Amino acid sequence: KAGVTQTPRYLIKTRGQQVTLSCSPISGHRSVSWYQQTPGQGLQFLFEYFSETQRNKGNFPGRFSGRQFSNSRSEMNVSTLELGDSALYLCASSFLRGLDYGYTFGSGTRLTVV
Amino acid sequence: AQSVTQPDIHITVSEGASLELRCNYSYGATPYLFWYVQSPGQGLQLLLKYFSGDTLVQGIKGFEAEFKRSQSSFNLRKPSVHWSDAAEYFCAVHTGTASKLTFGTGTRLQVTL
After folding, report:
1. From CA B34, how far away is CA B76, in angstroms rounded?
2. In sequence order, which residues have a C-beta less than 8 Å from that of residue A52 and are 6 or more positions away?
3. Does B60 touch chain A (CB under 8 A)?
4. How many angstroms separate the Cα of A84 from the Cα of each of A15, A41, A44, A52?
5. B100 touches chain A (CB under 8 A)
6. What distance in Å separates the CA atoms of residue B87 and residue A75, rounded to the nearest whole number?
7. Chain B residues with CB-CB distance to A92 below 8 A
8. Mean pLDDT of A32-56
9. Average pLDDT rounded to a whole number, residues B42-58
10. Are A105 and A48 in contact (CB under 8 A)?
């Protein structure tokens, strides 16, 4: 089956702008979570959605938000971008039952804020 | 709260040598444990996972890991490293109370020819 698709792969934005990233999970997976990866902070959990509901949220400011659609595709939005938001944003599609229990990651979106 | 420690930030091994990457976790019960590998600019690829049962688990690319409850460890091993194994390796823990992974800081593996 197809993997996790994240678009776009690369983005360059200016401070103060907003950005929307997209993630299409593996077919049949209803849980999508987002992670931020930076050299200084490593991999940090942003939030997780299941059946269009946010189930869990990490310790990020309110500028970071997300949503999930009925087809399980998810978007995350960052408003009023800051230089420190430059990072690789990874989406994970997860199936949390049985032998297939686990998280499959997309290739990520590299966001650069200038 | 659960945490994961990867004490080695950077490891260099010669091609053909054996490899062991260390991972220690902190959690009251038996967690779900994962090892991922990341090549530069790429996403995370799952190498192997442990939930229960046999404490020695086999993964892709010839990797294996052993869960040791008494030491709260889940070390990754490979008997003979290939140059293509050069990458960053992340250990992660998932607990049933929250649908998220907590990652270690990663170990960068360099392979010399």
Report:
1. 10
2. A67, A68, A69, A70
3. no
4. 10, 11, 14, 28
5. yes
6. 29
7. 101
8. 95
9. 92
10. no
Which pLDDT score, from 0 to 100, does residue B96 have?
65
* Measured distance CA(B88)–CA(B103) in Å, rounded: 12
Q: How many residues does chain B have?
A: 113
Instruction: Assess whether pLDDT exceeds 90 at residue B27.
Output: no
Closest chain A residue to the Cα of B39, Cα to Cα: A107
pLDDT, mean over chain A: 94
For residue A8, say if its preceding peptide bond is cis, omega within 30 degrees of 0: yes
**Statement: residue A66 has pLDDT above 90:** yes
State the residue for tokens 């269009």: A52
Give the pLDDT band (50/70/90) at residue A1: low
Chain mean pLDDT for chain B = 93
| Model confidence band, residue B99 (pLDDT cutoffs 50, 70, 90) | confident
Q: Which of B103, B43, B80, B107 is nearest to A104 (CA)?
A: B43
The answer to whether A91 and B23 are in contact (CB under 8 A) is no
Q: Measured between beta carbons, which residues in chain B are less than 8 angstroms from residue A101?
A: 32, 49, 51
A-interface mutation test, from B5, B44, B88, B102, most A Cβ less than 10 A away: B44
**Contact assignment for A103 to B34 by CB distance below 8 Å:** yes
Does A90 contact B49 at a Cβ distance shorter than 8 Å? Answer: no
Q: What is the CA radius of gyration of chain B?
A: 13
* A103·B51 Cβ contact <8 A: no
Alpha-carbon distance of B42 to B5, in angstroms, equals 22
